[in-house]
Amino acid sequence: MEERRSPSLLLIVAYITLALLIGVAVWLGVTVSRLNREVQVVKSLTPTPLPAYGNVMQVTIDPNAPTPEPVIRTGMSGETVWKLQERLQALGYYTGTLDGQFGPATFTAVQLFQQQHGLDADGVVGPATSAMLYSPQAHQVIVTPSPTPAPTAVRQAGTLLSGQPMLVNREVYLPDNYEPVELVNMLDYCDQDIVTIKGSDIKGERAAVDALMTMLLAAHQDDLTIWQVSAGYRTVAYQQKLYDEKVYEYRQQGFSGANARSAASKTVAVPGTSEHHLGLAFDITVPGKYFIDTQQAVWLAENCWDYGFILRYQKDKEDITGYVYEPWHIRYVGTEHSLIMRDEHLCLEEYIEKYWN
Ligand SMILES: [Zn+2]
Questions:
Q1: For the chain: N or C, fewer Cβ within 10 A?
Q2: Which of 124, 128, 96, 98 lies closest to 110 in space, CA to CA?
Q3: 98 C-alpha vs ligand 1 centroid, how far in Å?
Q4: How far, in Å, is the centroid of ligand 1 from the Cα of 283?
């Protein structure tokens, strides 16, 4: 039918269509350029957004990157610890129960494994220990003494050869030749989820620090989770500095030399007479609180004995110890002594008088 239309009519229709198309195209062109200008203006007014933290995190996650080796240490629990215990048990190093709790028994097993594999025996399962545990070089525990020379008999820190816990007080000075057995830096050594170490230079005897960590882990299980160590090992030189500062303070207030020293010695131990020289005493605090008012103080007074600690300066023993009540100051002596002192309510002076003289 259409072929029969006259060419002139077709031409007219074509012209109209063309004109319409041109019109639409021009309108579109004008609109787009106007929009562009508006976008430019809006852009110039909008500050460049800073990369969001979340976006940065997403960008840096590389699914192919190796996951870092987890460090397994005292105080941790769960399946990772359970697997570790299982492996150590299979090799004969761990003889405790498989409970998934990284306590002293697991610590000792890890240490023994490390000693027998030429690793740094720190009781912490880092990448090197972890790799060795599952390598073909991992061998069964050697029970008979190894050909390597055994270390000389381990001297028990803060204990005389007789087995008596050492006494250091206002009258009994630390022997000049006293040497700590093995000090550890507590900030490096202790799990910060269990205890806050106030300062990077607080040290303690390893045996006492291990006992402390075991004790505080138990406290966590009793829902007391905030603990801080404010003081540990002190050298005689450091104690001298503290003492001198205190004396100076009193001299500034107008005290005579003798009176200033006397007043200072009421609050700061005279150098050589502080238990902190042993590396077995710790001052436990709760940040922002008077320790004396805390539940932690109550818990410590009740439970420290079970972990080999004694509450050194008790309220009703002030005349004997020469110190006012200090609920925060605990001293490690070992459970063979602490339990007797608790049961018979003896301070260290009384205990030594009764059993060691
Ligand atoms: Zn103290």
A1: N
A2: 124
A3: 37
A4: 5
